[in-house]
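hey so u asked for the seq, here:
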Amino acid sequence: MNLKILTTQIRGLLERISNGQEESIEETARLLAQALIGEGRIVIAGFDEMEAVTSTALYGAEPLQRAVRYTDDLSFTAADRVWLLARKGDHPAALQLARQLAEEFIPFAVLTADPHDDSNELADLAFTYISTGLKKGLIPGPNGERIVQPHALAALFVYEAVKLSLDEMLADDDELE
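ran it, structure tokens below
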């Protein structure tokens, strides 16, 4: 019984992301493509469970071209593009990195669960912003609380959508040459 409920709720979550974030996914793919068209790298900065996206981009069956894992000692070039992924928009390390990137004029994209509103500094700093909209657990728990917050699953879905769009852009660019 719980598996059917979970499946239904995850399907709904992914459909909401697909329908509500399509333009932001496209914008993020366009931003990341700039690194690949030039001499840059795509720096993936996944925090906490969002590190799943970094692992997929680097070691998955279809790795992301010129992707590198963010580390504290990494230096950026003007050609680099950064994709910052955190569960919430107020993640301290994500905010610190976003402020650094903004100061260095390095374009970056952000993915979090939070909406893009006036209280979201991370969204304000980002060139592109995707929200998974995952605010609480998907299913009711035994005591009435909401449980199951699949932030990494939602982020991996968005990653695959961005990568698909990015690959299409690069294929179209190759056809023009």
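The mean pLDDT is 95. The chain is about 50% helix and 15% strand.
lmk if thats what u needed
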